[in-house]
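Protein entry
_____________
===
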Amino acid sequence: MRIIIYTGKGGVGKTSVAAATALRAAALGHKTVIISTDAAHSLSDALELQLSGRIAKIAKNLDGIEVDIQYELENRWKEIQSYLSDFLASQGMDAVTAKEMAVFPGMELMSALFYVEEFHKGKQYDTVIMDTAPTADTLRLLAFPETANWYFDRLFHMVRNVIKIARLTVGKIISTPLPSDRFLEDLENLRERLGYVRDLLTDPEITSIRLVVNPERMVISETQRAYTYLCLYGYTVESIVINRIVPDELGGDYFDAKLEEQRKYLKVIDEAFSPLKTISARMMPREVLGIKALEGLGDELFGKDDPTKIYSTESPMKMYDEDDKSVLAIKLPFPMDQKLELYTRKDDLTVQLGAFKKSITLPHSMANKQVLGADMEDGWLKVKFQGEDHGKRKDRKKRRGRKETGKAR
């Protein structure tokens, strides 16, 4: 199955591009589904069809869904929401408010990710197109499996053991409800499912990120940051879509300045994002609404090409040996003004760039080895570890030093 995720700054036309891609893929015979993770739900507006939290048919070979958190609560999160509602009610909150407050952070993100898991396991679709929220929310969505796994590893087993003890002791005398075994099983199941989704989304043979950009300075800057953060989390960015390019034929007194500015920024995009595959579309003469208009945008974007084609499978993370050192290389394509921190704990390497943190489980060949340093080279952060030969030479020097010290005595 092919998963294509469109992301970018709000207002660049992600929804139109995602819908145009889905329609073109379906027209070429790929059984396709488009899923909107944006709470604004502009996909319905773009298609001029009413979508909901249930999968609905849009056209031949094409289905669509807009993730609806209320629908998800009623159909997917019953055990978890039931416990949270009961707990809040036990603390004096009225039933209606308790039910509303039982929507814990990240629930809508997990719902979107679990649809991807179900589509992959069910094998009913060839292609999944994701129309995402603006950049910051998309980064939260894609970082969620990694972040949730970190908390599960460190907290879940401890909490489960504490709850078992509490049931036998204070649980007999307090009125506050304790989580059931079914609730704990649901949490463990969540962890396994998120791990499955993480593996899907970080497999470049399956999942591709496409960045949608307009030739404007602020948009380009945010897209550069998004590209770097996506690489940090291990996602393959395979192409950039330049949308709403003003055609040269609109020149004249009014548009000359705009065209000149646009040429400058198109050059900036080319220099900044090369060698990424570039897909482009001119500004349409009318607002892109409805299936016919979206099909026209698809023609503009892809011509005769298949939009599900994989343009790159380069992983943003590599491990190799170099000059008797072990190297972990992470693609960070743009220099950032945020502080970059690295630290290790047992077999984990944590990379923090600004507010974004990535925890990397090191292979046995690197675990517990000394970090010798890190350098930025050609858009790659290269973290260097003590290599086998380096370590052996160091041990030989220590032994030689001890012998020489013994002779001196």
